[in-house]
Amino acid sequence: MSNDIVLKTEHLSIQFGGLRAVDDVNLEIRRGELYGLIGPNGAGKTTFFNLITGVYKPTSGRIFHDGREITGKTPIEINRGGIARTFQNIRLFNNLTVIENVMVGLANQIPCNVAQSIFRLPRHKKSEREFYNKALELLEIFQLAEYKDYLAANLPYGKQRKLEIARAMATSPTLLLLDEPAAGMNPSETQELMDDIAFIREKFDITILLIEHDMRLVGGICEKLTVLNFGTELAKGQTAEVLANPAVIKAYLGD
Ligand SMILES: Nc1ncnc2c1ncn2[C@@H]1O[C@H](COP(=O)(O)OP(=O)(O)O)[C@@H](O)[C@H]1O
Ligand SMILES: [Mg+2]
Fold first, then answer.
1. Which ligand 1 atom is at minimum distance from the Cα of 50?
2. Ligand sitting nearest the alpha carbon of 87
3. What is the reported pLDDT for 123?
4. Pocket test for ligand 1, best of 12, 16, 53 (most atoms within 8 A of CB)
5. Ligand 1 pocket list (CB less than 6 A)
6. Residue 42: how many CB atoms within 10 A of its CB?
7. Ligand nearest to the CA of 42
8. For strand 207-212 and strand 175-179, is the pairing parallel, antiparallel, or unpaired?
9. What separation in Å is there between the alpha carbon of 129 and the centre of ligand 2?
10. Which of 92, 99, 174, 108 is nearest to 138 (CA)?
11. Does residue 78 contact residue 54 with C-beta atoms inside 8 Å?
């Protein structure tokens, strides 16, 4: 496999009882791409992320990240291997501060016992300070530094979404998976977020796979798209071609 390919799935499928939630999906994402995964509600988009990140084991098919097979690995192994994600429903540690949430992301990158000692033992104070400074740098990039001591729960919704992305970036991914990051945002927050996403791709030199329900939204920033419908690939390719595909329009608009 060319080492230009960051993520590849081969005949990836999962069945829940009689439902084929993801059905023979063959995806190939190249290094540096901002790739969109779109499709109507219930199409299998989130389930696809759950397969890539090891939350679900596929019924059949294989997954490769940076040329290595990751099928069957655990979520923590996959994250340490360089894939980070955010969730359709925000998952933050609400009772930790903004900066602590990012520090948790940083700590994910090292084995548990080391993380515990860094946070608990005085002789690791220096490492803790390094973590703190690194977390602060990330917050600055995401324009969240001024909120660093707020409890995550007290951040406005749009900023919670950004914090989740900052925390994912703290795990130093090569591939970032974003599950409907604009869900629940107003149009100006959404535009700002799309700009941020394009910016972090450049800044961190990463590859991004973006799930979005609203197909107009992805048109602006994704170079390529895959459209899922009832778990299967309805269309894929360059964004403009995919969005003009009558089958895609029909899947969105109905008859
Ligand atoms: N753990 C599960 N058990 C049973 N069915 C599931 C499970 N997870 C998802 N599904 C079903 O799989 C289908 C795809 O869901 P999902 O991936 O969440 O869609 P999307 O993210 O595209 O809206 C839906 O019909 C959903 O109900
Ligand atoms: Mg979903």
1. 17
2. 2
3. 54
4. 16
5. 16, 19, 21, 39, 41-47
6. 14
7. 1
8. parallel
9. 37
10. 99
11. yes
Domain 1-82+173-255: CATH class, spelled out: alpha beta
Looking from the CA of residue 211, the nearest atom of ligand 1 is 21
What pLDDT shows up at residue 10? Answer: 98
Hey, where are the domains in the chain?
A: 1-82+173-255, 92-172
- Going from the Cα of 64 to the center of ligand 1, the distance in angstroms, rounded, reads 22
> Quick check: 117 pLDDT over 70?
no
Residues 6+ apart with CB under 8 A from 184: 157, 161
Distance 33 CA to ligand 1 centre (A): 26
Which pLDDT does position 106 carry in this prediction? Answer: 87
Residue 26 has pLDDT above 60, yes or no: yes
Rg (CA), the chain: 19
193, 183 contact by CB (below 8 A): no
CA of 77 to the centre of ligand 1 (A): 24
What is the average pLDDT across 22-42? 96
Span from the CA of 44 to the centroid of ligand 1 (angstroms)? 6
Kindly give, in sequence order, each residue whose CB lies less than 8 Å from that of residue 113, ignoring residues fewer than 6 positions away. none
Q: Determine the Cα–Cα distance for residues 216 and 98; give it in Å rounded to an integer.
A: 31
| Range of lowest pLDDT (150-154, 240-244, 250-254) | 250-254
